[in-house]
Amino acid sequence: MQQPLINNRFVERFNLSTPIALAPMALATGGELAAACARAGALSLVGGGYGDLDWTRREYSDAINRLEGNQEGLLRLGCGFISWKLAEDQSALDWLLDQQPKPAAVMLSFGDPTAIAKILSDHQIPVICQIQTMAQLPQAIDAGATVIVAQGTEAGGHGMNELDGRSTFTFVPEIADWLAAHSPQTILLAAGGIADGRGLAAAMTLGADGALIGSRLWATTQSLAPARAKSSALQANGDATARSSIFDILRSKNWPKQFDFRAIRNQIHREWEGRIEELRANPKAAIEDYLGGVGQEDYDRAHITVGQDVGLINDISSAEDVIDHISRDAARLLSGGVSGK
């Protein structure tokens, strides 16, 4: 095993060579990206997302096949799901529980994790709970979480709405303090706005054991995101995203009210800003417009799922190169050096 540049309890617990976890991004974190990140030493979570059995089975199996003969990589492979969707249909999870080797961990986000966490614990699979508020923390600990992910509103994709959500910069140290007092054995990862070594080093300085990284690994050659969407994202800076329920309505996703979605603030998003209830009441024409954009890869109408760290993404390179660069730069900063940026 490659010697870790940064060694701590997260790295040791999951036999990693870097304190990075790949975010289980629905429809983007497929088998190729998960396998690449596992080979690079990260904890790799396939995006089980909405619990679609066929998609999860195909992409998780693809990751296993790509890691054939790489035992260390296989032992870093897990999956992530949306908790409220598993409550409706857990067939994808049931399939996953039968896989060998068993998943390194399963991440649960957006909803009460208690019932599913019990199933995972009974199978001796570590549970990762992603939370967005302090109020959710005791529930996640009581459910048996091995790892807590503190997700700030900077994150791309789904998260807590702006009214109730937290910034990563203040959320992580508050959770770190709470865990130190109430559950010191629990590992803490930061999520939201972390795209380079500076972000990883900052998160660890604030008390995290590592980072869950989404947008930066979305913008890699192995991500399932369309190439045109990745290219378009490179033209954006951190001012270019917005968080709302608009794209969930356009995609006919019935998300719980407290959660919404960060993506590039494009033409179709701007058209419906301030008119969300009107859109919700009569979405048919807008949905057709959106779906036309998806079919034509027209990103004035189709969504691009990235967070506020999009302005820190300057190229589409391999996941292995991204992880290596982030890890080396963070290690240099944590040892008192200067960023390579």
Keywords:
alpha/beta; 2 domains; eight-stranded parallel beta barrel; 17 helices; globular
Structural class: alpha/beta
Strand order of the largest sheet: 1-2-3-4-5-6-8-9
Beta-strand residue percentage: 15-25%
Topology as a string of helices (H) and strands (E) = HEHEHHEHHEHEHEEHEHEHHEHEHHHH
Describe the global form: globular
- Domains, number: 2
What is the highest CATH level, the class of the largest domain? Alpha Beta
The helical percent reads: 40-55%
- Sketch the major β-sheet: 8 strands, parallel, barrel
Number of strands: 11
Q: Give me the CATH fold name of the largest domain.
A: TIM Barrel
Write up what this structure looks like.
This protein is α/β, with parallel strands linked by helices. It has 2 domains: 9-225 and 315-334, TIM Barrel; 227-296, no CATH class. The chain contains 17 helices and 11 strands. It has helices at 9-13, 31-39, 53-66, 71-74, 83-86, 91-97, 114-122, 137-142, 168-182, 197-205, 215-218, 227-233, 246-250, 267-272, 276-281, 284-296, 319-334; strands spanning 20-22, 43-49, 77-82, 106-109, 127-131, 147-151, 157-160, 187-191, 210-213, 241-244, 259-264. An 8-stranded parallel β-barrel has the order 1-2-3-4-5-6-8-9, surrounded by 6 helices. α2 links the parallel β1 (20-22) and β2 (43-49). The longest helix is centred in the last third of the chain and has 16 residues, at 319-334. The model has no long low-confidence stretch (mean pLDDT 95).
